[in-house]
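Lecture notes, part 5. Sequence design as translation. It can be helpful to think of inverse folding as translation between two languages: the language of shapes and the language of residues. The source text, in structure tokens, appears below.
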């Protein structure tokens, strides 16, 4: 079955992995609701370009992923204006790097809320429609840190481990309903999120920028290459396809061999 005329909501999709995933879906004829904060004019350019290039309907929601009410309203709006939410991609994420005994409580709460709890809220809101239509695809962006750990990233590691557990539980709940629930765990992908954590890591480890990239980020990545956003998007697209209809509750790892060690 073609994905053409399906409808998707992709959180955290005004840049990076989320935007690449939205683009990959739109290329297949999927109508998309983007989500993310940023310069309104820049976001409108992105929205308009996707719609024009692929001839699909593209919306944007600035719902704050810290606010359950805004998340529910975003899903409802997508269902109303697109007609359904057939595909849900949970991609919104933030990072904070600090020793656990110095980790600001408000930053812990934000990282857990956006990287884990927001996915609960989107799933909770989108699943009734998927169940009614007996078809759905939920794909969440986890991380190699869903399977392993690094120092100074306690909240992020906890959230991503939690996201894999949430994925497995929900997959079992809906396994007979034509709905698959999976996550993707890339190692370091060169995005604005990764670039933004370099200064904090430099400070925490007393390293130069080059040392952080080579000795921290790529040190455990055997290929010594960053994963690309298009590679992650291609994996998400595959998990939405008919070929992947028996893949559910899984964690698709794209980590250059990191977790094989």
């Amino acid at each position: 079955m073609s994905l053409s005329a399906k409808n998707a909501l992709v959180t955290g999709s005004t840049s990076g992995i989320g935007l690449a995933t939205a683009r990959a879906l739109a290329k297949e004829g999927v109508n998309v609701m983007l989500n993310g904060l940023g310069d309104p004019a820049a976001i409108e350019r992105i929205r308009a370009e996707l719609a024009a290039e692929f001839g699909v309907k593209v919306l944007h929601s600035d719902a704050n992923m810290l606010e359950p009410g805004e998340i529910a309203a975003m899903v409802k709006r997508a269902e109303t204006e697109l007609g359904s939410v057939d595909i849900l991609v949970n991609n919104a994420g933030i990072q904070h790097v600090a020793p656990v005994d110095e980790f600001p409580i408000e930053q812990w709460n934000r990282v857990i809320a956006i990287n884990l709890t927001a996915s609960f809220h989107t799933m909770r809101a989108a699943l009734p429609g998927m169940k009614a239509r007996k078809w759905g695809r939920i794909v969440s962006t986890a991380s190699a840190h869903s399977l392993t750990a690094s120092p100074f990233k306690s909240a992020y590691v906890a959230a991503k481990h939690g996201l894999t557990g949430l994925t497995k539980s929900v997959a079992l709940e809906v396994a007979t309903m034509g709905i698959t629930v999976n996550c993707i765990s890339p190692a370091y992908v060169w995005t604005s999120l990764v670039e933004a954590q370099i200064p904090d890591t430099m400070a925490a480890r007393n390293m130069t920028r080059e040392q952080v990239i080579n000795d921290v980020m790529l040190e455990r990545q055997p290929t010594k290459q960053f994963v690309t956003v298009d590679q992650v998007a291609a994996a998400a697209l595959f998990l939405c396809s008919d070929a992947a209809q028996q893949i559910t509750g899984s964690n698709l790892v794209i980590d250059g061999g990191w977790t094989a060690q």
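The translated text above is only one of many valid answers, since several sequences can fold into similar shapes. Residues 105-133 form the longest helix (29 residues).
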